[in-house]
Amino acid sequence: MKKILNYVVPGTSFVAIVFAIAAFSNTHAANQPLPANSERLPMLDVQSAPAVQPVDLTYAADKALPSVVHIKYVQNSKIQTVEVQSDPFEDFFNDPFGGFFGRGQGGQGGTRKRQVQTPKREATGSGVIISSDGYIVTNNHVVDGADELTVTLADNKEYSARIIGTDNTTDLALIKIDGRNLPAIEIANSDNVKVGEWVLAIGNPLGLNNTVTAGIISAKARTLGANSVESFIQTDAAINAGNSGGALVNTNGQLVGINAMLYSQTGSYSGYGFAIPTAMMNKVVSDLKQYGTVQRAMIGIMGGDVKNYIDSEKEKGNEVDLGTMEGIYIDQVTEESAAEEAGLEKGDVIIEVDGQRVTKFGDLSGLIAQKRPGDKVTLTYLHNKKKQTKTVTLRNEQGNTKVVKNADLDVLGADFREVTQQMKEQLDIQYGLEIIKVNNGKIKDAGLPKGFIIRQVNDKPVKTVDELEQIVKEVSTSKDPVLIIKGVYPTGRKKTFVVELGE
């Protein structure tokens, strides 16, 4: 469970008790005869007031519990080469002539390489079954780096899971188990939830499986700075470590959010938890299934809440009048972006998207996160305090409207293998990937030959084929899809190549 520090104001329980006593006292007094010569005070017509019934959450719990699963994460022990500070005395006893004949790599104040075995890591989290054929939504941080994932259903049946796709930007992940007729949850539109509405948080916190906690929706469209794209649902239902990836459901047992993090000074629940709304989740899941990566649309601005901007200017002694205290203040417009094409400028304030008010940045993030590059949106904004409306075509991070797909090693058109021990000794290197075959592809276009040993890609050490593939996937969807490959020829000569992954 992700954690963010904040202060918590006590006293909620006390207020609730006071209200309960007050309600009882008024009801009791209404049924008592008045003393003689007394004047009856005006009273509320109870027949005109809506009847208040106790909230029964048992139906929601019974309906949603079977759809929430326990996820066990395992990262196996690995051998890694690390640099450690040299100990001159240890170096001398291990190789007393190293200093004379040049074999010692450390020396005074130097470093040397050592192989260490990382410990096996295990963790647990939660997930939500969204289809009867085994698709499960969880948080990216629940599955990131896992070598093994085991899913346990509410009836204790166990399945091995594989990762279909992940999105670090929203902290969502889609995994799959091989099952049929699984208890998929019903998904509601999170845009329709209201502040004050009752919700349940379901998951596996602190090792306590199938746990349900209750609360209300405390706020919508919260931004915390934890992820790149955020529009959280805030709730006071207790969320703890292990709840990550679990379900936030309404009183009908329908999914409205994926629990993701909590505010805490201690690491455990102290007031508020945060969930990723289903409106955002549905878009991410659809993209991961269809494209393998999220098709992220962008307006092309940097900025923040109007109130925050005005407050910061006041602290500097500046008086600012933007014509509104709500909306998104544009601090910067990205070159060749949808916003620049539409004519938006620094100092403008976005107040509506497709006719929906946006009062803070979380509102804007939540709406744009549901769009794809190529989609059109109508922006209403204030320019010099005058309202204007423009229709813009959203673009991807690379500045166009094309579908972005994760590239794999096939796009490079080459075969690789880890360098042999003989090559390591011959070239005095600890790791690298040798190109053993060059076909038609980006490697050939860039001029990399067979036999060349790749050591670094975009300043990241590359020791395995899996590491190279991960870098290629990340770079292929970035704003600048270019690989800077550094390596060495079998002769020992070093060389740098530039490989462009874009069209």
In short, what is this structure?
With 503 residues, the chain is α+β, with helices and mostly antiparallel strands.
Distance between the termini: 39 Å
Taking all Cα atoms into account, the compactness measure Rg is: 29 Å
Beta-strand residue fraction: 25-35%
Separate helix tally: 12
**Number of DSSP strands?**
27
- The 3D shape can be described as globular
Report mean pLDDT, rounded to a whole number.
83
Identify the strand order in the major beta sheet.
10-11-12-15-14-13
Helicity level: 10-25%
User: What kind of sheet is the major sheet?
Assistant: 6 strands, antiparallel, barrel
Q: By helix and strand content, what is the structural category?
A: alpha+beta
Regions with little confidence, pLDDT below 50 for 5+ residues? 3-49, 97-108
Secondary structure elements and pairings:
Elements: E1 2-4, H1 12-30, H2 58-64, E2 68-75, E3 79-85, H3 88-94, H4 98-101, E4 111-117, E5 121-129, E6 135-138, H5 140-143, E7 148-152, E8 158-167, E9 172-177, E10 198-203, E11 211-222, E12 232-235, E13 247-249, E14 255-263, E15 272-277, H6 278-290, E16 301-305, H7 306-315, E17 328-333, H8 338-342, E18 349-353, E19 356-357, H9 361-368, E20 376-383, E21 386-393, E22 414-418, H10 421-427, E23 433-438, H11 442-446, E24 453-457, E25 460-461, H12 465-476, E26 482-488, E27 494-500
